[in-house]
Amino acid sequence: MSRWKGLPAELDPSARNLVVRLRRLKDHSGLSLRQLAARTGYSTSSWERYLGGRSLPPREAVEALASVTGEDPTRLLAVWEVAAEAWSGRTATAPAAPVAGAVRAGASAGEQDQDQAPEPAAETGRAGSVGLVDPVGPACAGAEPARGRAFHVAVAAGVVAVALTASAVVALAGRVDTEDARGTAAPPASSAAPATVSPPPDLPAYTCRVERIDGLWYAGQSATRDAIVANGYAGPEVAEAQCLLSRAGYSPGDIDGIFGPVTERAVKRLQAEADLVVDGIVGPHTWGALRG
Length: 292
What we know:
Helix 1 (13-29) crosses helix 5. It contains ten helices and two strands. It has helices spanning 13-29, 33-40, 44-51, 59-69, 73-91, 100-103, 146-181, 236-247, 261-273, 284-291, and strands at 211-213, 216-218. It is mainly α and 292 residues long. The chain folds into three domains: 13-142, Orthogonal Bundle (434 Repressor (Amino-terminal Domain)); 149-197; 211-291, PGBD-like superfamily/PGBD (Muramoyl-pentapeptide Carboxypeptidase, domain 1). The chain is 47% helix and 2% strand. The chain is globular and about 45 Å long.
């Protein structure tokens, strides 16, 4: 298991989620960065930026990693789409980086470096900020324009909006028909909110039931020992981590199953005490410290 450096503090939660998943796939594959570069067609320095959260990997790089590790790319690409949308919102006005392959197009064969994968374009933007999307694909392929991605995202959002509107109309019409059949007047449209736009129900309540089984601590929410949870995640795995943090004396705030800043600070304190990488992300090593 690689000992990863902490991700940039300014990294968007959706982009952080993508990087955590890519790191996990790389760790499970057992490949070094040089081996990963050789199999995917992206250089070692490119993967260092992608896995360090300094550049958003191209869609093709994510597909290549999924192919190399035997992962179904569908869910991984869905995570990438969300991260790309958040990333493009911050970098849409930045100038496009030059394509490395175009610079070397006129070079002789002796000048080409045969031992390295194609190098991506240089990152641009203000100093100290998270890098731009790396536009270079395998074999120096051209980058998809940012506005092309924005168009696809807009089309997808439009389709979802149309579907939700149609569902709301069908639900409202069905309710009106039911009221008419009973001989009562239909309620005003403003008071008959369709089910598809109703406020979400309250999050489930979690109760810590801490007990020690076979030398390990469990809190009754999840038995996982390797699930990745980080800031922005929610669910029983997060509640399990919160219960175990509280048991160990590191207050995560409310036991609500939501991984927020308070829970992240508690995780970092535990990691520092356990001599682990202090990144605020609960992975296999941190689970070991929580359950041990």
